[in-house]
Amino acid sequence: MASTKEPDSSRRSDRSRRAIHDAALALVGERGYRRTTIEAIAARAGVGKQTIYRWWPSKAAVLMEAFLDLAARSAEEAGPQAGGEHGIPDTGDLAADLKRVLRATVDELNDPALEGPTRALTAEGVVDAKLGAEFVEKLLDPQLALYVTRLRAAQEAGQLRADADPRIALELLVAPLTHRWLLRTLPLTHAYADAIVDLALGGLTSRP
Q1: Whole-prediction pTM value?
Q2: 3-state helix/strand/coil string of the chain
Q3: Could you give the CA distance from residue 179 to residue 152 in angstroms, rounded to a whole number?
Q4: In CATH, which of 1.20.58.760, 1.10.150.120, 1.10.357.10, 3.30.310.50 is domain 67-202?
Q5: Crossing angle, helix 94-110 and helix 141-156, to 10 degrees?
């Protein structure tokens, strides 16, 4: 008799999870966070809503995991030269390394696949303190920690003032990008990212 193979349940589960992630991100980008429902995510993903509730306790948990998965995939595709999941490159040239990473951040913020969900979750995090705290803890803080590590290495190499606070320094780098992206006042470009690095590292005051 020909042997029959049992279906690979783990592979099926992975496909279902990815389908749910993609459906959640698409819907939150199209409708916003509040108008996205578990029922709509299940229908878009082609699964029963019981499947979603078996794996996640809430809509927020689904969307957060979906967004983290998308961010991880984007970082992996970007690779180490863009920072990615490997951290900020350390070539010995601090300005060049920061420009490379900020340019990659510009590309991510301008990416249609990321922009809608990022805006929706950012806006909802302002009014939903629990969701906002989770967004910061799981996504933002790990990314910001990479800047702190790179800036401390620059301090040890004598490339950055010893009394500079790395946390404040990184805010000088990433906050302008976020501000321009949130307000949509002017285009978010690589040239803008480069200018931020030059001003942050060089300062604004004239030198004798």
Answers
A1: 0.78
A2: CCCCCCCCHHHHHHHHHHHHHHHHHHHHHHHCCCCCCHHHHHHHHCCCHHHHHHHCCCHHHHHHHHHHHHHHHHHHHHCHHHCHHHCCCCCCCHHHHHHHHHHHHHHHHHCHHHHHHHHHHHHHHHHCHHHHHHHHHHHHHHHHHHHHHHHHHHHHCCCCCCCCCHHHHHHHHHHHHHHHHHHCCCCCCHHHHHHHHHHHHHCCCCCC
A3: 25
A4: 1.10.357.10
A5: 170
Query: Where do we find the tokens 């595709």?
Result: 77
Q: How many CB atoms lie within 10 A of CB 24?
A: 29
How far is residue 99's CA from residue 156's CA, in Å, rounded to a whole number? 20
| Burial (Cβ within 10 Å: 0-12, 13-18, ≥19) of residue 43 | middle
Tens of pLDDT along 28-81?
A: 888 888 889 999 999 999 999 999 999 998 888 898 888 888 777 766 766 555
The count of residues in the chain is 208
